[in-house]
Amino acid sequence: MRIDVVSIFPDYLAALDLSLIGKAREDGLLDVAVHDLRDFTHDRHRTVDDTPYGGGAGMVMKAQPWSEALDHVVAQGHAAGLPGGRPHLVVPGPGGTPFTQALARQLADEPWLAFACGRYEGIDERVYEYAREDLGLEVSVISLGDYVLNGGEVAVLAMVEAVGRLIPGVIGNAESLVEESHEDGLLEYPIYTKPQQWKGREVPPVLLSGNHAAIAAWRHDQRLARTAARRPDLLHPSHGDADLDVRLATAADVPEIFTLVRACYVDEAHANGTLDIPALTEDIDTLRASLDTTRTWVARKAGRLVGSVRTEVRGDSLFIGRLCVAPDLRGRGLGRRLLERAEGSAASGIRTFSLMTGARSEANLRMYRKAGYRPAPPDPGSPGVVALVKRRRT
Ligand code: JD8
Fold it and tell me: Which NCBIfam families would you find in this protein's record (predicted)?
């Protein structure tokens, strides 16, 4: 990616020589050029500002130096091997479109960005028109946040870092990008490093358990709880519910589980064109008895039973079944959370997770595929059913 920055304080951008962005420039992953706006003035005072028409406080940046600077950036870009290309011009401003991770991702897909750092009260409006109409540039006014800075440089530093680190190869292990705040809309989970004990404070034991699924479930719960506490505006139904209470079922839960299973498997019957599904034919006493031979989890939200799942040890595999989410609450990640909880409950000897679902249960198959499950040898005794398996991460 090519990045041009124009400013009357080019030294402000020296921070882009450092750290990951600096390394990415050395590695040729980023080509960053900083230009001094005053180089495009022709008077001995190198004037870039003048008083505002219509009066008012402060000064306005003159159009001519900016037009010459932008002409230079476009011409130099072409000379630097960006033939025919035009930069996307980003002008930071307090009244601009809010800068977000999603916007950073969009900009990271572009081959050439140019940033115009304003100062004083801002830039003569005709410069925006000149860039769009005469140079044919896409021009975006973007704001770093709802507070007032003295100029665009700080915003450009933040934007170049947020965009630059998304360029493939800039961040060593791209994996770490996945779980970041704002990447999937949830804030980050708490992190710890050695020593295990510090000033009488312990690291949460689950993090020392080596049980990846339990760690994943704990971290997801922490992200939900933090987001609910600090940024409830970020919470989206698909994130699942911060106030979801998941625990082992007792006999008292049986009537509600029975009802939930009936409700959920009607849709499975529809999808798979058969009512001959054990969950639909099993009577409540059989379900009650299953609490003694399997581990059943229930999820409650404000007291209402909204989900359930059960696990059964079969050799070194944990068979996960009867994963149910109240039909009116689908699409919120509850199924994924219950699946994580079930996996997380696995004892140390468990090597794989296995489950079955209807061959035409598209939504279930999509969720299981996303969770890492892959087709397993079909059970000849269960036509129309797909067996899935997942190796446990050690
Ligand atoms: C560019 C000049 C200063 C702004 C009079 C103070 C971004 N989130 C943000 N807050 N402020 C800026 C920003 C401020 C700028 C310039 C960006 C150019 N100023 C002006 C208008 C009021 N002074 C920003 N991104």
Answer: PRK00026.1 (NF000648), trmD (TIGR00088)
pLDDT at 82 over 60: yes
Q: Chain-wide mean pLDDT for the chain? A: 91
Which residue is listed with tokens 């600096």?
22
Distance CA 93, CA 144 (A): 8
Say if residue 215 is in the same domain as residue 96.
Answer: no
- Measured distance CA(190)–CA(187) in Å, rounded: 10
Alpha carbon distance 171, 168 (integer Å): 7
Calculate the CA 341 to chain-centre distance.
Answer: 21
Nearest CA to ligand 1 atom 6: 150
Q: Does 335 carry a binding-site annotation?
A: no
**Closest ligand 1 atom, CA of 155?**
25
Q: Is 185 annotated as a binding residue?
A: no
Domains: count for the chain:
3
Specify whether 286 is located in the same domain as 207.
Answer: no
Residue 43 marked as a ligand binder:
no
Is 240 a pocket residue for ligand 1 (Cβ < 6 Å)? Answer: no
pLDDT band at 246 (very low <50, low <70, confident <90, very high): confident
Q: Are residues 157 and 200 in the same domain?
A: no
Same domain? 143 vs 218 = no
CATH number, domain of 287, equals 3.40.630.30
Q: How far is CA 120 from CA 117, 123, 369, in A?
A: 10, 8, 54
- Half-sphere exposure of 263 toward its Cβ, with a 13 Å CA cutoff? 17
- Going by alpha carbons, the residue nearest to atom 19 of ligand 1 is 151
What pTM does this model have? 0.71
Rounded to 5°, the CA angle 225-228-233 comes to 155
Q: Which residue range forms the structural domain that includes residue 7? A: 2-174
Q: Evaluate: CB of 144 within 6 angstroms of ligand 1.
A: yes
Q: Is the pLDDT of residue 50 over 60?
A: yes
Sign of CA pseudo-dihedral 221, 227, 232, 238: negative
Q: Which helix (H) or strand (E) holds 187?
A: none
Q: How many helices (H) and strands (E) does the chain have?
A: 12, 16
Residue 214 located in a structural domain: yes
